[in-house]
Amino acid sequence: MADFCVAYLLADKPTKALRAYERAHAWRELFSLAKKEGVSEEARKDLVERVTDYLASRGRHLEASRVFVEYAQDVDSAVDTCCRGAEFSEAYRLVSHYDRSDLIEAMIAPGLEEAQETLIEVFEEMEGQLDKEVKRLKELNGIRQKDPDSFYIVERELDLEGVDVATNATTATGISQFTRYTVAPSTMSHLTRFTGQTGVTSATSKKKVKKRATGRRGTVDEWEYLVMSLGRLGTRVEEKSGEAVALLRYLVLASDDHRALAESLQSTIKAFRVKLVNGIDMAWEDRETVLREVLESGGSGLEGGLEKSMGEVKPKVAEWKGLGLLLGA
Length: 329
Fold this sequence. Notes:
coiled coil, tRNA binding, Elp1, TPR_ELP1, 2 domains, 329 residues, mainly alpha, 16 helices, 69% helix, single chain, HB_ELP1
């Protein structure tokens, strides 16, 4: 697209170049050319509106704020855009630079409240996800104890229609159908010796098992997905906790009411992080045993992904203090 812009300029077609720059979202070049070509004030305001809408919708609030100030001299919209993007340091800078202290009460204060409410909702949503996944993991652990064949996707003889599905794992271990799930846990180094063993000797049976395992609820596949999901949740928690620290610094300085909001946000995050640690501990408590039993069962659970699962490392949720003693905690 940039090449088209240059081509239009070389061909002395500035109007087409302007449209090309806008389609390419090259706002710096767009406004430079617009000024050079003497674009009318009304047309320039339309450009500002479209460009800032695009930038803000992509999370580029600082750039949108700059466009408002530099090309529309609209400090109010610039500060409002910063607040909507939780860019409060820039919002305060603009208020100070343009001597618009009235915008602190009109825009920044409610913006801080809205940002706090949004983060509270985010952590409540994550807590709901955590509760559902922990509950489901407990249900799957119950299935594992009561019906291990179903959990590990073990084909019963009556369902196989004469197809030989003996596996290397079942042949090598020699563990009987009644005792293979009660063998004492082994170490992960012991598990790795089995990595790469095939699940089914018949190509036809392989396809059949794979088809049945795909999207199968109530199995080790669902169990492993949920365990990994808790790890991904931990990554998101760290990201949002970092955002919260930046917000807490402004909340605690804004007013007594905002300080109370800061205390509420910090306590919410700390409580959730403790709950997440407990959930991850529960999920990983028997994971080594489960992976060993995947091999020993001869089932098709985690087919094609067992080696990757055995290489996963238990996620850690670091201690988080927020603003610590600055908020009395």
